Each structure stands twice: as structure tokens, then as C-alpha cells.
Amino acid sequence: MTLTQLGVFVLVARLRSVRAAADVLGVSEPAVSRSLAALRQHLGDQLVVRDGNEMTLTEGGNRLFGIASQMVALGAEAEAAVRAAQGAAAQLRLLVTSTIAEFIAAPLVEAFGKRWSGQIETSSGVANAAEMRVLLPNRLADVALGPDLSGDPALASEPVLRYRLVVVGPPRHRPAGPPSRWPWLVDPTGTDPDSETGRLLRAFRVPEGRIQVFPNQTAAWSAAADGAGVAPAVSTLVSRELRRGELSVVETERTPVQACWHVTTLAPDRRPDAARRLRNFLGTPDAMQLMCAPGAGVPPSRFRPPVYVTIWS
């Protein structure tokens, strides 16, 4: 029995899906199934069984779940303690939405790294709200920046920066008919039902057939500028395209949406020191400036693309 197997079990139990656990870990479904099978064989219990479209805990799995969660968390704390004793940099794993990853994560991590000059090694990963709620309590990540994750007593979610979500389209052109009939162009954040974009699409009752998902926000805006449809956008991030006249704001009865990015960590009594430092940094004028106007990026030697945080070995 290994910490990896226990971590996989906890993820499957929380997400109620082998496929969802594989997606979060960035591995194949058979890899998750093999890890789960080894744990089942060792403990002599199925632990989780299929019930319709979901996986549910057996009685043995239900009793194991709390213990396994604590063991995974203690394993992360043990690793951090040994690294600290060896004088190694503390590891900080930051989860962000796809929009924040595209525009803000790299310069934010760069500025935070300079402030602590070699003491903290930060990596960033892209996740939706549901994945963040699983990865943080299971110590597979340390900080999340994006949606409000309040509601879990194990997590502390605090507002960081208010922003406005607007709808943009080609200059001097408004689509015909109601918003539910417009072509909507979104980045992966639009597929997250807990994101502001996801809520806006639901509010307009936009059918799936009228939504087109692009790999990033810039590609969605480019398609909107070419007349392919309309795209939601954070007003400060799209300001350059608006100033250049490449896009214009499309007025609707539900926009602009007044929204807020939140920083979420474990509860204060369990929060790692590196996570505490990043949380405090996000309230500084330097961090606020970067989140409002990220700028041109970072030097190539310092660039680290966002990836999925994984416990796989």
C-alpha cells in the first residue's frame, strides 16, 4: 500500500469517477484503475463500486476515506519537512483558471519568486472549480486563484481583486436576435459551470450548439474580431484590443458582470508557510498591478508553462 494508491483512492471517492480522477492527475484511466486495483487487493475490499454513472464507497471504503485523506496530507507535510531540513526551496503549487494562466500566472509567479529569491519554488497548474475543491484538501496543490471556493470548512477563500466581465464582438456590429441565439466564443473557462462565464451562459440559456470552445482567450477574441460571434472577457485584460478598435463591447441586460477573483488555501491552522506568503503577496500593490495589467510577459529563461499538478510517480 502506497501514498500514491491512497491518493488515487481519495480522488476517485471525492470525484466519484475514475475518468475525472485521471483527468485531474493527467494520466490515463487504466493507470488509475491499476492503482485502485492494487489497493483493493491489498485491503481485500472493493472500496469504491459503480452505481449508475458514479462511483460510490463501500462500507470499508467509507471507513478508509477519512484515514486515507489524513495519510495523504501527512505525506505532503513529511516531504515538506524533509526538504526544509535539507535547506531546499519550499515547493508551492498554484492552481489557476485557464484565463489567469494565459495572462497573469507567469508574471505573477515571476514577481513572487523575485521577492523570495530562491526560498520558494513555484509551479502553476490549470484547474476548474471542482478540481480545485479536490486538489487543495488532498494536498495536491497549495493555493488556488480564481473562483470563490467557500463552503468547505477545510478551505479558506478570500476576495483578492474585483473585475468586470463584459461581452465583446466585432467593431460597430451587434448580433441579431436574443443572446441565446448568438454564437458564443469562449476559452476553457467557459466549460466550467462554476465560472462567471459559465454562469453567464446559463443566465442567457445559451444551448451547447451555440458555444464554441477555443484553446485560449486570445484565440476566442481573434475569432470574435473576425465576426465569428461574441466572447466574454475580463475588461482589464481585453482593454488593449478595445483601444485598438479590434473589438467593441456588446451591451446586454446582464453585463457587465461585477465579479471577483479569490485566493483559496487550506484553513489557517493547516496552511503551509509558502501558501501564506503568496496569499499575503497577492494583496500588495505589485501583485494588484500585475493582475490588472499583466504586461508583456517574462524572460524566456524564467517562463514556466502552467501544467496539471500531479502526485504520479
UniProtKB/TrEMBL annotation:
<dbReference type="InterPro" id="IPR036390">
    <property type="entry name" value="WH_DNA-bd_sf"/>
</dbReference>
<protein>
    <submittedName>
        <fullName>LysR family transcriptional regulator</fullName>
    </submittedName>
</protein>
<keyword id="KW-0804">Transcription</keyword>
<comment type="similarity">
    <text>Belongs to the LysR transcriptional regulatory family.</text>
</comment>
<dbReference type="InterPro" id="IPR000847">
    <property type="entry name" value="LysR_HTH_N"/>
</dbReference>
<keyword id="KW-0238">DNA-binding</keyword>
<dbReference type="Pfam" id="PF00126">
    <property type="entry name" value="HTH_1"/>
</dbReference>
<feature type="domain" description="HTH lysR-type">
    <location>
        <begin position="1"/>
        <end position="58"/>
    </location>
</feature>
<dbReference type="InterPro" id="IPR005119">
    <property type="entry name" value="LysR_subst-bd"/>
</dbReference>
<keyword id="KW-0805">Transcription regulation</keyword>
<dbReference type="Pfam" id="PF03466">
    <property type="entry name" value="LysR_substrate"/>
</dbReference>
<dbReference type="InterPro" id="IPR036388">
    <property type="entry name" value="WH-like_DNA-bd_sf"/>
</dbReference>
